[in-house]
Design a protein that fits this description.
Structural class: mainly beta
Number of strands: 52
Radius of gyration: 42 Å
Strand content: over 45%
Largest sheet: 6 strands, mixed
CATH class of the largest domain: Mainly Beta
Distance between the termini: 68 Å
Helix content: under 10%
Length: 663
């Protein structure tokens, strides 16, 4: 087997390669199987085996995409195998001329977009993509403008990210798919020389790149490594191993650990970096004597545990063979969490966290509110009996706030980290959220904050309360006993008794909700039962407005009213005519007058409809009588009633016009 390429998803492993110099072949096994089944021959790949490569990639739906080239024909093919094992016909995606060397590389994005990359001598990196599972393909695109060297490698990751690594001018580059084309980033920036990069994308979509130096010793020898930071830039390179190297392959697993395989003349080496930790190199898996090992390709998979797989060319013994190594890592730790015993709501800001379904022997944990933990969240000892966490002050506001806690565990002896942090949510409610209003119950109306009866209307609305209100207590500072009422809802309205002495009443309204939060509100209302006295009538006239004759202006000049309580504040008005007796009195406040105790001389006007309160049958031409009483702020009217008449020979009836809405 030549140029093996390995891919894995869940518990399945696939290896692509050129067999015997004439067949593009696909091998398949489960992750824990010790051997492969009968290989599937996917197509012709005749010619010089060094220049007839193959690649395999797996879509998130489990379908497999296999790409290969044939040196003799110069064609590049792609073939899809469905989840059930059915092989679809091969698609011709490229032609670079018979007898021309090439590399082929496949990748599949999360959204199912399929990519085929290949190298043509003397040209930039080529690619095509398909958004319909390989049925139709884009035109051939170039990544960059300059020639690339042999050895390309691609990876896909979260958020539809796809990256392809390659060598140009003996420097390492990675190109990233942006949805329509590729953005190029240079990884190495020095005078040393490198080749054969391998790229993988971690669980955050950041690229990790490993590659080899081109020399047997010196600065350009060994295995090198770099990774993207949060800003997308690559870290300075780190040399992980010295010496002459043939090839390098890096992969990441679902727990965020990194796996690195590389070969020198005869040996295969393995390096492991636990999530958030450093590299552990020098774990020599196997030593091959003779002609050595070449072209490693690595991938990871998992069922109930994590497996790491590597395929490579084996030149030991007689002739070329393809060999595959696989080994199992311990399962990463895992827990489920519950906040406050799985309660949906809480008013506490120090929360108890319970651990359930603990596996993998975690000995440390880290947590974060609102998103998965990062390196900014310190590791701490894991205690299976539970954890107590404080809600940050920025999240513990009075509003109903849904909090989500993310907890991630790890085992420091194995270096394995929980792949997906455990989460649980709870609604934090640390305060009562309500509006409280105290208004006049009297039917004659009044200004806000005044009443002419020793009773007031208490109205409570709590639409934003995430639990129901439980109880309200009303306490007037003075002779009356506190009044308490059960609510068990988010709205409450009730008449509240006041003490019978006139004057300002201050009431303390205390609310509690079903979680035990409480809030106190102070509300005042003035009780005034003393009516004002009309001292001098002055001039009171009715005139029709210019726009509509049934809309009147009542003009008052020189009228004097005395009130020893809250002060004159408006009029109580009634309408009548030959067809209808006096309507119910309506309180109409003066718009630009501040009520004051004592005698007030009025020069003002109000607007009034002569039809107000009358039945429609009484809306006829004729003489209308308006009854006028002067009222204080509490709605108490003068005993004297002033009547004024107006005769209308025709009526202007105001109409309302609603817009006509058609579908």
């Amino acid at each position: 087997m030549k140029y093996p390429d390995v891919a894995a998803l869940d518990a399945n492993v696939f290896v692509a390669g050129n067999r015997e110099g004439f067949e593009a072949t696909l091998w398949r096994k489960t992750a824990n199987a010790t051997s492969f089944g009968t290989p599937a021959v996917l197509g012709d790949a005749r010619g010089q085996v060094d220049f007839s490569t193959a690649s395999v990639a797996i879509a998130t739906d489990g379908s497999i995409y296999y790409g290969w080239s044939s040196f003799d024909s110069g064609f590049i093919f792609v073939r899809r195998q469905l989840v059930g094992g059915t092989l679809e016909p091969a698609q011709l995606v490229g032609s670079r001329g018979a007898g021309t060397a090439t590399d082929v590389e496949m990748a599949v994005a999360e959204d199912g977009t399929v990519f085929t990359f290949w190298r043509e001598p003397g040209k930039p990196l080529k690619y095509r993509f398909s958004r319909d599972r390989g049925n139709t393909w884009s035109g051939v695109g170039d990544i960059g403008t300059e020639e690339i060297f042999p050895g390309i490698n691609s990876a896909s990751g979260p958020g539809n990210k796809v990256a392809v690594a390659y060598t140009r001018g003996l420097q390492i580059y990675v190109a990233f798919w942006n949805g329509g084309t590729f953005d190029i980033k240079r990884v190495t920036r020095n005078e040393d020389t490198y080749a054969n990069p391998s790229v993988t994308l971690d669980n955050n979509g950041r690229a990790i790149v490993a590659w080899r130096g081109t020399d047997a010793d010196g600065n350009s020898s060994g295995v090198f490594f770099s990774e993207q930071g949060a800003d997308g830039s690559f870290s300075p390179l780190v040399r992980l191993f010295k010496g002459a190297m043939n090839s390098v392959s890096v992969s990441t697993d679902p727990a965020g650990n990194l796996h690195l395989f590389f070969t020198n003349t005869a040996d295969i080496y393995y390096g492991f970096r636990p999530n958030g930790e450093g590299w552990n190199i020098n774990n020599q898996l196997q030593r091959f004597r003779g002609n050595g090992t070449y072209h490693v390709s690595a991938a990871t998979s998992r069922d109930t545990t994590i497996y790491s797989h590597v395929a490579f060319e084996d030149f030991s013994g007689d002739g070329l063979k393809g060999s595959v190594l696989g080994f199992r890592l311990p399962a990463p730790p895992s827990v489920r969490i519950q906040l406050e015993g799985d309660a949906p709501l809480t008013d506490e800001t120090q929360l108890d966290v319970s651990f359930l379904d603990v596996s993998g022997t975690p000995d440390q944990l880290r947590y974060n509110w609102g998103s998965a933990p990062t390196d900014a969240n310190p590791w701490q000892a894991f205690n299976a009996s539970g954890l107590s966490v404080a809600v940050p002050s920025g999240l513990s506001g009075a509003v109903c706030n849904t909090l989500t806690l993310f907890v991630q565990t790890r085992n420091t002896s194995t270096g394995l980290v929980q792949a997906l942090p455990a989460t649980d949510s709870i609604v934090l409610d640390t305060a009562v959220q309500a509006t409280v209003r105290l208004t006049n119950l009297a039917g004659s109306g009044s200004l806000p904050g005044f009443t002419n009866v020793p009773t007031a209307s208490l109205t409570i609305d709590a639409p934003n309360e995430c639990t129901d209100l439980d109880q309200v207590t009303v306490d007037e500072a003075g002779p009356t006993a506190p009044q308490s009422f059960n609510i068990d809802a988010r709205q409450f309205s009730r008449a509240i008794s006041l003490s019978t002495s006139e004057g300002e009443k201050e009431l303390l309204v205390t609310l509690s909700d079903t979680l035990g939060n409480s809030a106190a509100y102070t509300r005042t209302i003035v009780y005034d039962a003393t009516a004002p006295t009309l001292v001098t009538t002055g001039t009171i006239a009715l005139t029709s407005t210019n726009e509509v004759n049934t809309l009147l202006r009542i003009t008052i000049a020189g009228t004097q009213v005395n009130d020893s309580g809250s002060g004159v504040a408006g009029l109580l008005l009634t309408n009548s005519n030959a067809e209808a007796s006096a309507s119910a009195a309506v309180f109409v406040p003066f718009s630009a007058l501040t009520p004051q105790s004592g005698t007030t001389t009025l020069t003002t006007s109000v607007e009034w409809s002569v039809l107000s309160g009358l039945p429609a049958a009484a809306w006829v031409p004729g003489t209308y009588t308006v009854g006028i009483q002067f009222a204080d702020a509490a709605g108490n009217p003068t005993s004297a009633v002033v009547e004024r008449t107006i005769t209308l020979t025709a009526l202007d009836i105001p109409t309302q016009h609603l817009p006509l809405v058609r579908r």
